[in-house]
Amino acid sequence: MAESDSPTPPKLLPDEIHRAVNPGTALLRLRTTHSREGVLDGAWWPRSRDVAAELPALIQALTTHLGPVTRVGLDKDAWEEVPTRVVVDDRVVHLDSFPAGDDTVLITRGDNDHFALLVVPPDTTPDAARDAMARAVDAGNVTRAAEILVATLPERVTHRQESA
User: Fold this and answer.
1) Could you count the other beta carbons within 10 Å of the beta carbon of residue 36?
2) I need a labelling partner for 154 at 20 to 30 A (CA). Which of 51, 89, 127, 162 fits?
3) Cα distance between residue 27 and residue 21, in whole Å
4) Overall pTM surpassing 0.85 (yes/no)
5) Total Cβ atoms within 10 A of residue 38
6) Nearest alpha-carbon partner for 48 in 20, 70, 81, 71
7) Edge-to-edge strand ranges of the sheet holding 42-44
């Protein structure tokens, strides 16, 4: 994770995380295990729904940890203006749209190695984001992204139901 002006508390994410982390830095947690038996491989907490602003930092962070990223799959309806590709560090990364909801992003490394990341909504409180990200990277997690968000962000689900 990026440096900040304040020390990181024991819960891993400072209370003002979106302001404390340098712009252009991805708020990302990856599972640190050799087995890939769980539903999710990590979690990402973007600052906004602007793909052009958010994806380059995510792709750079993932490339550092996983190797070159070739594709990113996301729900185009959950993001602002999704292009068909982005260029990050002189590499073209193709963007695919799928109607799976705004709670996951699929990362492809190489030809066919996929990683699923929980997407924590940008306006989530730091405590709720911390809880959701921790659940996503838990080695024994078999819970899908939408269920994690329902469990950790009950106020968002209630608000969505009232709006419908």
Assistant:
1) 11
2) 51
3) 8
4) no
5) 18
6) 81
7) 28-30, 42-44, 113-119, 104-109, 69-74, 91-97, 85-88
